[in-house]
């Protein structure tokens, strides 16, 4: 059975300090933090990276990854990788270009794949893996395009180990069946999810408003997915710490339910 870990993406609260982010995660019972590279731990800022690492260690909170805004555009990833290493992040979150799969030419798709492969080799030398955002207006806007890109990247790699993998997040308003179909296609390639509840117009809801959908996704991932999957809370309604605490309680209740259902099944079949 898949082990689910819970965490917080620091970008959810851009205005909070490093200390406040760590305290909030601890108060919410979240075991990991993904640190944002655009505000909390800026590439090249060793003091921020050191402080974030030390605060997490003191609070007993793990570091899920380092959220970069690198878009496979030829920009060197050296500074990002160095900061991720100093932070102690096992993965760097990157973006697969800036255009959707339907709008990207074959030549640009090849260029992006080669760029990510080269960056992945560079990061692997530091023991860090690259993980792709699953996002609109990139080459990971569909499960099919994501799988094709991951295959192209793997074929272009020169370094073994630290394979490039993918995140997953729901598009605003996505129905249950398409979401489950995406997760089924990507099963085994996804190590982390962005967890939030949005309406189709992008407005944010308390996480529990889409409880049935999320419970179904977690049930699906608990069979035959990655051995461990990080569930990272993001985009809370009204951007308030209070809502994050409520969302964390909701998430933990789902996971208790998933565990309980599997325990019952094991007892029946044991």
TrEMBL record:
Q: Which UniProt keywords apply?
A: Carbohydrate metabolism
Q: Does the keyword DNA damage apply?
A: no
Q: Which domain of life is it from?
A: Bacteria
UniProt keyword Transcription, yes or no? no
Please state every residue range assigned to the domain named Xylose isomerase-like TIM barrel: 23-239
Supply the name of the protein.
TIM barrel protein
């Amino acid at each position: 059975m898949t082990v689910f870990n819970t965490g917080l993406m620091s970008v959810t609260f851009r205005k909070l300090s490093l200390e406040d982010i760590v305290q909030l995660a601890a108060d919410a019972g979240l075991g990991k933090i993904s640190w944002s590279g655009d505000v909390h731990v800026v590439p090249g800022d060793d003091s921020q990276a050191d402080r974030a690492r030390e605060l997490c260690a003191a609070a007993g909170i793990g570091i899920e990854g380092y959220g970069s805004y690198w878009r496979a555009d030829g920009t060197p990833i050296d500074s990002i990788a160095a900061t991720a290493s100093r932070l102690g992040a096992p993965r760097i979150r990157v973006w697969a270009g800036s255009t959707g799969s339907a709008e990207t030419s074959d030549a640009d798709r090849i260029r992006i794949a080669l760029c990510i492969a080269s960056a992945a080799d560079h990061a692997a030398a530091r023991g860090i893996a690259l993980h792709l955002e699953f996002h609109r207006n990139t080459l990971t806007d569909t499960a099919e395009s994501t799988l094709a890109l991951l295959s192209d990247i793997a074929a272009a790699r020169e370094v073994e180990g630290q394979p490039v993998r993918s995140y997953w997040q729901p598009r605003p308003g996505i129905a249950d069946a398409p979401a489950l179909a995406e997760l089924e296609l990507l099963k085994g390639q996804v190590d982390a999810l962005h967890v939030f509840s949005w309406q189709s117009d992008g407005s944010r809801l308390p996480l529990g408003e889409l409880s049935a959908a999320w419970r179904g996704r977690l049930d699906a991932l608990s069979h035959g997915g990655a051995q461990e999957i990080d569930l990272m809370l993001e985009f809370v309604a009204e951007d308030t710490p209070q809502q994050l605490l409520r969302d964390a309680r909701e998430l933990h209740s789902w996971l208790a339910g998933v565990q309980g259902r599997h325990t019952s099944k094991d007892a029946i079949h044991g």
